Amino acid sequence: VYSIEVKASSGSYPIHIKNGLLHEIGVQVKKIYKGSKIAIVTDSSVNELYGQGVINSLKVSGFEPYKIVVKSGEESKSFKTLLEVYDKFLDFNINRGDIIIALGGGVVGDMAGFAASTFLRGIPLIQIPTTLLAQVDSSVGGKVAVDLPRGKNLVGSFYMPRAVFIDPLLLRTLSERFLNDGMGEVIKYGAIKDSQLFDSLMGYENKEDLLKEIDKIIYTCCSIKAAIVEVDEKDTGERMLLNFGHTIGHAIEQFYNFKKYSHGEAVAMGMYSITKLGEELGITKIGTSISIKDILIKYNLPWMLPEINSSDIIETIGHDKKNIGKLMNFIFIKTIGNSFIDKIDKSKINNYLQEVIK
Ligand SMILES: NC(=O)c1ccc[n+]([C@@H]2O[C@H](COP(=O)([O-])OP(=O)(O)OC[C@H]3O[C@@H](n4cnc5c(N)ncnc54)[C@H](O)[C@@H]3O)[C@@H](O)[C@H]2O)c1
Ligand SMILES: [Zn+2]
Q1: Which atom of ligand 1 is found nearest the CA of 141?
Q2: pLDDT at residue 115 above 90?
Q3: DSSP, res 138
Q4: DSSP letters of 304-344?
Q5: Contacts for 114 with CB less than 8 Å, ≥ 6 apart
Q6: pLDDT per residue over 17-50, tens digit each?
Q7: Is 223 in the pocket of ligand 1 (CB under 6 A)?
């Protein structure tokens, strides 16, 4: 059992990590919520696996739960789905004294979180992340959002949950691809802040071996993210470190319309290529990119950039909402575990990309 208290300007909230936590979710929610109505937002796949169990546990604890099931997949992070969800909130007569539970991966967490942050100017929210990516990343830090037809996460807010409940056993039903996808972010935490975590990831023999210790790994990652978001809640400085591998990664995802590569896969290629560039610029210790490549291969993640036109990547990077002007912020690592922000001229990145992409 692990607990972390995340200090936010709007008050602090706990992250509880425990194998089997979902079975006792009613009891856990009872500790922090004295009301009765609960709207659970989940997606169709998660609902099939865990929906009824959560409803039962909440009922046993005396709650009055309502379930809202959206289609699984990124399309549900849309205004269309949002309207359907608001409509259900109205049907159930959800009020500011009630609570919303987001039960699912990052898609449900982001969309239901945004719905919670905006409906009646804000309904208290509990996050129950069910993918590795959501357990180590998206459920912590309060960023919630939906997509617009012209881009991902373009409408959103910062909205802290009341609590985050993490049950690592839920990862046993996750497909191997999504597990590895989440490992992309886990590797990122190691690379930017924790060489011990990074090294330990090389040691797991197989999936079972990894899952046995995944609760501890999730705790380490959440602790790193919590420490970073505490000092930079609104994403203006330190929090940028979490973007290691993400600028190039986002460009790749976007170039393929989010169809060819998952987020973790795209970030994997981004982490490797920015580290290789760091070595060439003399700001990253030689050999670091090989360590990154080895670990990516171990978790079945790609490292080599796909053969797309470098100017297309640059153009996409240029559209990234975080970049203003000719100099762009990039996250580099000096050695595994030590990261920093550097401003790099766009043309340098372009030259480098031209070199690595045939
Ligand atoms: N808010 C943030 O800070 C933040 C950070 C990173 C990513 N994100 C967002 O997260 C989203 C991606 O999240 P994701 O990768 O979790 O995708 P997802 O929510 O689509 O989940 C992936 C798939 O796994 C299924 N699934 C979920 N839990 C399962 C389980 N326990 N067993 C079996 N299947 C399960 C889902 O139904 C879905 O099909 C993106 O929209 C991204 O923008 C947000
Ligand atoms: Zn990410």
Answers
A1: 3
A2: yes
A3: I
A4: SPPS--HHHHHHHHHH-TT--SSEEEEEEEEETTEEEEEEE
A5: 82, 144, 145, 146, 155, 156, 157, 159
A6: 999 999 999 999 999 999 999 999 999 999 999 9
A7: no
